[in-house]
Design goal:
Length: 255
């Protein structure tokens, strides 16, 4: 069996080149492969094209690569809570493909499943299907590049828009546990975009809080089979070090 374990995050991301496409797991502050992202920041690759639910937050996750001007294009469904993202996008420094959240998840999953495209009702009757979404602004309030119209087809009288799957050069993923064969277990809401991102990468790199021997994870608890994982690095227990995103009126943590 091929050894998938790397000694460090730096070793695991060392060959990611300039211009690479990356599927990155996580949602908000949850399930972010922050150790791998930090290693990539140190490694120096630039002109990166990311696919992720959101492009990090200010000072955390993909937000660090964004602040360093290392991301040229991103495909995402949520772009709030990141002032630098908004600044770069509106100033024409960053190309952004906005897509509905469920569609984004399915585009990545479909890429890993070998499905080239699929029809969905999400986005029909909007600029998602009709075109015109600003991909890049000109920095002066105008749109430099807009999205093209997509194919719409009716099935049983209901219109659906054609969406193409996503396959990326690399995927960066956070997991609670992995075994030496690459089988992965996620914890709680970290099981959001991480499995889909992992499936869409040609080379999938997993930062696991713990790596155990093959067979130690009950097969019923495997959320991602090892066939989708090429590289593993053990990173220990992770804390974001970032304040929670929302407070209730009673000050309870609901992140």
């Amino acid at each position: 069996m091929t050894n998938k374990i790397f000694a460090s995050a730096a070793d695991a991301v060392a060959d990611i080149p300039d211009g690479a496409s990356l599927a990155v797991g996580g949602f908000g502050l949850v399930g972010i492969p922050a150790v791998l992202i930090d290693a990539l920041l140190e490694q120096g690759a630039t002109d990166l094209r990311t696919v992720s639910n959101n492009c990090g937050t200010d000072g955390f996750g993909l937000g660090k690569l964004l602040e360093a001007r290392r991301i040229s294009r991103t495909t995402a469904s949520y772009v709030g809570a990141n002032r630098e993202f908004a600044r770069q996008y509106l100033n024409g420094e960053l190309e952004v493909e906005l897509t509905p959240q469920g569609t984004l998840a399915e585009r990545m999953r479909a890429g890993g499943a070998g499905i080239p495209a699929f029809y969905t009702p999400a986005g029909v009757g909007t600029m998602v299907a009709d075109g015109g979404l600003p991909l890049r602004y000109d920095g002066q309030g105008g749109v430099a590049v807009a999205s093209e119209p997509k194919e719409v087809r009716e099935f049983d009288g209901v219109p659906y828009v054609l969406e193409h799957s996503i396959v990326t050069d690399f995927a960066l993923v956070h997991a609670r546990r992995a075994d030496t064969a690459g089988n992965v277990q996620f914890y709680g809401t970290a099981r959001n975009f991480n499995p889909d991102a992992a499936m869409s990468g040609r080379v999938t790199i997993v930062q696991a809080e713990e790596i155990v021997s093959a067979g130690e994870i009950n097969p019923a608890d495997v959320h991602l089979p090892g066939i989708f994982v090429q590289r593993l690095v053990e990173v220990g227990r992770q804390e974001t070090g970032v304040e929670i995103e929302k407070l209730s009126s009673k000050g309870e943590d609901r992140s």
